[in-house]
Amino acid sequence: MGENTIVSSDDIRSAFSMAVSDMYKAEVPAYGTLMSLVASVNRTFLETNAEFRQRLEKTDSLNRLSQERHGAIRLGTAGELATMRRIFAIMGMFPVGYYDLSEAGVPVHSTAFRPIGDAALKRNPFRVFTSLLRLDLIADVSLRVEAQRVLSERQIFTKKVLALTDKAERGGGLNREDAGSFVEELLETFRWHDKASIDIELYHRLHDAHRLIADVVSFKGPHINHLTPRTLDIDAVQAQMPEWGITPKAVVEGPPPRRCPILLRQTSFKALEEQVSFRNSGGGWSSGLHTARFGEVEQRGIALTPKGRKLYDQLLNEVREQVLPEANGSNSTEYEDCLSKVFAAFPDDWNSIRKEGLGYFSYSLSSAKAGDVSENDLEALIETGVVRFDPIVYEDFLPVSAAGIFQSNLGDEAAQNFTATPSQQMFEVALGCPVLDEFEHYSAIEKSSVTQCFTSPGGSS
User: CATH number for the domain including 267?
Assistant: First the structure.
């Protein structure tokens, strides 16, 4: 490859995901322990679940497990969000979905930057859940103005990464030398800084408004607040964390354990209490503490259709009306029992989920040929084994689960009441483009797979 050859966005994303993982392991050693635990659990699961392993192999999804992770950052201004969109685009990552977390007591709204094509996801499925602070939800007007001032004076990107972003947009990408520099420079935005950019008095005022506000406003950059490996058995990870010296949160967020996993289940270890220096009136530094960064684990299931998501939300709301999980775990058994009981109403075999239109599936030809048939014969071809169906993995997030993770790591008092005012339009103006609708995206993947069965060699032309 020549030195001026454009490096693929997939290669840049892979290099960055590995670099940020190495950086986070160095900054948060417990994350490295968590990665080892997840790898151990995944090996055991695959050794004892041959059918599941075969499904992953047939759908070319096995190799991505070792690379599977997502990160999360919290931004303070519209300008930061718009620039981050441009930077992620160079890595083949695009905004999917809109999430309003104010309804769950967290003053942000968010999107997920991720690859969207099948080949790109299989190459490296790295995602970054990216939140924008809702300063309009700070009731104290003077504090809101002060926070705006602090955020307006910071620059979270290096001059070089901004220059390379401009260069990539002009030239359609980056060569190998520039791509390496781009990754190295971008790490500075995600890096932890132990010196706050404000004094301790302002920090406490922001902290009293909401811990997350203090985390966003107080520092030079957004510092990645967690990285998340993917496990095939989150309950095993949750149970084994203490054996590995890790304290897990009280309950796993999302649906209960199932034979056929749906959407997303998440757990985490407790956020670190870290030494931070704050500016003082004498021009020097004073010591303090800040809690923000933690480790998370996820187990991904099938993407649900609007009908399936409506049923999921209905069941989850029913559970939470009966039992709201306490961050300290005092009612975790009661909550988990209620969750399992209520979710018995959601079908737990793939064919029922498919026939009832609750989830999205990818269709493909088995070793036999479809022959001269139409898509109207799909069900008959499935019954005779000519066409197989596999669940499409949910690549996105759940706002209630994300809020639950945030709150369990920010403390009981973090769950404040904000007036839920979702504004996707306001978010997209700040972002600089619309977000991709996840339901339309999964539906298009499913429809394309059906069409492919009848147009590919072996199918009807």
Answer: 3.10.180.80
